[in-house]
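Customer escalation, tier 2.

The customer says the design service returned an amino acid string that "doesn't look like it belongs to this structure." They asked us to rerun it and document both sides in this ticket. The original C-alpha cells are below, unchanged.
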C-alpha cells in the first residue's frame, strides 16, 4: 500500500482506527485497523509511515499495544497458512507424517466425533428447554446492561438458542460431525507443524490410546525421541476438545 497517495479521508479513517484500538483494545477495533490499511501485512508499515509523517499523532498512540497485537496476528496467520498447507497435502515428509497419524488414530477419532455430536445434541435440548420460550424482556431481565439492553454474554447465549431452535437435530448432527472431523484433522496438522519446527523430517510414529487420551512416540535416527500426549477437556458450555503436549 502506498501511504503517500492516501486521500485525507483515508488518512482520517486510519488514524481513528489506530486511536480507538490504542484506547480500548477491542477485537472489532483491531479489525478496523486491518481494513483501513488494506491488510494485516500493512499494519506495521503504516506505523512506520505515521512516525515519519505525523510525529504528533504518532506520540499519542500506545504503539507497544499495536505492535504486540500485530506480531501475534502475523504469527497466527503464518501458522494458519502452514497448517492449511499440511492439511491439503504439504511436502512429502509432511504427507507421510499426516498419513501415519491419521491411520493410527482412527478409533480415537471415531470416539471423539461421537462425543462432540452427543455434546451438541444435549446442548440443543438443554438450551431450548431452558430458554426456548424466552421473550426479549426475559433476556434483558436475566442479562441487564443498564438502559442499553443485553450484555454481550446475554446476546451470545440468545443467538445460540435461536440457532438451535432453527436447526433440526439431524442437521445439527451432520454439522457437528463435519466440524469434529475438521477440528481433529487440524489438531493433527498442528502437531506435524510443531514437529517440523523441531527439525523432524522423516520420523516414525507410534500412537496408542490410554484411557481417553492419545500418547504418541516420535522417533528419528538423528533426533531426540519426542513424546506427545493429548489433554482433553469439555464441560456444560465447552465442546469436547483436545490439544497435544510435546515433551
Amino acid at each position: 500500500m502506498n501511504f503517500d497517495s492516501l486521500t485525507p479521508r483515508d488518512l482520517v479513517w486510519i488514524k481513528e482506527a489506530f486511536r480507538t484500538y490504542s484506547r480500548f483494545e477491542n477485537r472489532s477495533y483491531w479489525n478496523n485497523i486491518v481494513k483501513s490499511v488494506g491488510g494485516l501485512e500493512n499494519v506495521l508499515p503504516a506505523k512506520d509511515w505515521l512516525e515519519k509523517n505525523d510525529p504528533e499523532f504518532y506520540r499519542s498512540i500506545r504503539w507497544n499495544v499495536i505492535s504486540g497485537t500485530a506480531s501475534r496476528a502475523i504469527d497466527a496467520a503464518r501458522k494458519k497458512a502452514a497448517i492449511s498447507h499440511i492439511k491439503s497435502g504439504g511436502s512429502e515428509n509432511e504427507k507421510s507424517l499426516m498419513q501415519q497419524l491419521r491411520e493410527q488414530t482412527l478409533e480415537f477419532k471415531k470416539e471423539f466425533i461421537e462425543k462432540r455430536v452427543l455434546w451438541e445434541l444435549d446442548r440443543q435440548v438443554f438450551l431450548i428447554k431452558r430458554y426456548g420460550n424466552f421473550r426479549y424482556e426475559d433476556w434483558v431481565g436475566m442479562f441487564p446492561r443498564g438502559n442499553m439492553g443485553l450484555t454481550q454474554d446475554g446476546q451470545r447465549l440468545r443467538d445460540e438458542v435461536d440457532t438451535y431452535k432453527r436447526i433440526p437435530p439431524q442437521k445439527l448432527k451432520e454439522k457437528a460431525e463435519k466440524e469434529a472431523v475438521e477440528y481433529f484433522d487440524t489438531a493433527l496438522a498442528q502437531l506435524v507443524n510443531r514437529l517440523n519446527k523441531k527439525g523432524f523430517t522423516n520420523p516414525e510414529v507410534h500412537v496408542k490410546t490410554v484411557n481417553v487420551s492419545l500418547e504418541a512416540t516420535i522417533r528419528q535416527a538423528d533426533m531426540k525421541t519426542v513424546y506427545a500426549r493429548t489433554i482433553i477437556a469439555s464441560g456444560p458450555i465447552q465442546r469436547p476438545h483436545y490439544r497435544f503436549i510435546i515433551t
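Tier 2 assessment: The sequence is consistent with the input. The first helix runs from residue 8 to 24. The CA atoms of residues 24 and 30 lie 10 Å apart. Sent an explanation to the customer and offered a walkthrough call.
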